[in-house]
Structure formats: C-alpha cells, structure tokens
C-alpha cells in the first residue's frame, strides 16, 4: 500500500476514534454531573455552575441516614427480577405463537403492541382494584406482577424476530421424532433463541428497575417502595435536597451499571442476532 493510502487510513481511524470519544463523553457527562451534585451543598447547587465551589461530603452520610437505602434497593431488585421471570413465562410462548401462527399470530402481535401504546396512567385504576382483590396492594409481589405484565408487549416484540429466524424444518423434524409443540419449544426453539431471551430479560429488568408510576401508585407503605420512589422523598414542599438525592441516584445506578457492563456481551449478541434476517 502506498504512503498516501496508509495516511488516509490513519486519518480515518483517528477521525473514528475522535467521534467515539465524543460519544462516550456525551454519555458520561450526566453521570459526572450527578457526582458533582453529590459533593455540593444546597446553596451551592442553587448558585449554578457545573463544579462544586467547595466539596461538601456531608451529603453522603446524611443520605444514608435519611432513608433505609438498603431496603429500597432490595425491593427494586426483587421487583425487577420477579417481573422478568413472569414476563418471560408469558412472552416466550406468546412470541412463539405470533411467529408461527400466520395471520392469527400477526393479529395477536398487533393487539399486544397496541396495548403498550396507551399511556400507563389509564391502567392505574383497574390495576389498583385487581391488586386489592388479590390482596397484593403495598407488596413487592404486587409490584412484580404489575411490572411483569406491563413488559410483556416489549418482550414479545423483541422475541418474535428471534423465533422467526429458527427454521421450521428443525421443528418439523422434532415432531417426526415424537416431540409435541410444547416440548419442541422447550427443547429445540428455546436453546436457539437463548441470546434473544437474555437480551429481552435484561431490557425488561432495566424497565422494571426504573419504573416509577406503578411503584408510587401501588406501594404507599415504605416496606414495599422501590428506589425511584425513595428518590422522590428528597423533594419537599419548599426545599429539595439535591445533594442527597444525587447520592442515592449514584448508589442506585452503580449496581445496574455493573450488571449492564457484565452482560454487555449477551445483550449486544442478542440484539444483533435478532437484527439479522
């Protein structure tokens, strides 16, 4: 390769590196600003500026002393994990039907997705009476049930493409060997769409972990409230504890960030596999 060609390749590589660096900076700036808020007093925050004029460490012990942060985080993780299990139990066979049932499956997929287009607030009243009849108001199990059902349309939409990529001939061969439809789904299709199931599980986990409206509406008791609700407790009628709120935000973000980084391989592999036809 000529010197000009090598130089052009290096310039393209340098330009791509610079672009990726800018994207990475844009994604990390909000987190860095939250870190800055956690080290500033209330007056310092109200004065504006991006950096603390004087480091205010007291926000950290005050935040942990103001609320039972461990309980709120445990509730969030329990609700998110329980909702993911319920979502997948419904969405995996649901996506299998939408992908394999022809026009009937297409109608079901459209119906399920149309329900997700409505604003969540319209479901508050019927879900409240449903949980009351089941005696699940103010419980972690009730929140997991609501979040799990709410995320079913997203999971079906994600998994439908994975099921369609599995050749029908593999299932037909399994049927000839004596496997039924459910056994074929469990033993043939499910292992082949495992990356998609992992990706859908992670996305639904993040959706449930960050959910606020249902958690605020169905868990008035502090024993069942989740971390997003705990963040709202720092906003009073006259004063807002910005620094303490930022501390709780960072503590809540950290384990989910670690999970996202650890599961990045499966998330990217699952989403990219579903995108290939």
Automatic annotation (TrEMBL):
<keyword id="KW-1003">Cell membrane</keyword>
<protein>
    <submittedName>
        <fullName>Carbohydrate ABC transporter permease</fullName>
    </submittedName>
</protein>
<feature type="transmembrane region" description="Helical">
    <location>
        <begin position="108"/>
        <end position="129"/>
    </location>
</feature>
<keyword id="KW-0813">Transport</keyword>
<dbReference type="GO" id="GO:0055085">
    <property type="term" value="P:transmembrane transport"/>
</dbReference>
<keyword id="KW-1133">Transmembrane helix</keyword>
<keyword id="KW-0812">Transmembrane</keyword>
<feature type="transmembrane region" description="Helical">
    <location>
        <begin position="141"/>
        <end position="159"/>
    </location>
</feature>
<feature type="domain" description="ABC transmembrane type-1">
    <location>
        <begin position="73"/>
        <end position="263"/>
    </location>
</feature>
<keyword id="KW-0472">Membrane</keyword>
<dbReference type="InterPro" id="IPR035906">
    <property type="entry name" value="MetI-like_sf"/>
</dbReference>
<feature type="transmembrane region" description="Helical">
    <location>
        <begin position="77"/>
        <end position="96"/>
    </location>
</feature>
<feature type="transmembrane region" description="Helical">
    <location>
        <begin position="242"/>
        <end position="263"/>
    </location>
</feature>
<dbReference type="InterPro" id="IPR050901">
    <property type="entry name" value="BP-dep_ABC_trans_perm"/>
</dbReference>
<dbReference type="Pfam" id="PF00528">
    <property type="entry name" value="BPD_transp_1"/>
</dbReference>
<dbReference type="InterPro" id="IPR000515">
    <property type="entry name" value="MetI-like"/>
</dbReference>
<feature type="transmembrane region" description="Helical">
    <location>
        <begin position="188"/>
        <end position="209"/>
    </location>
</feature>
<comment type="similarity">
    <text>Belongs to the binding-protein-dependent transport system permease family.</text>
</comment>
<dbReference type="GO" id="GO:0005886">
    <property type="term" value="C:plasma membrane"/>
</dbReference>
<feature type="transmembrane region" description="Helical">
    <location>
        <begin position="16"/>
        <end position="35"/>
    </location>
</feature>
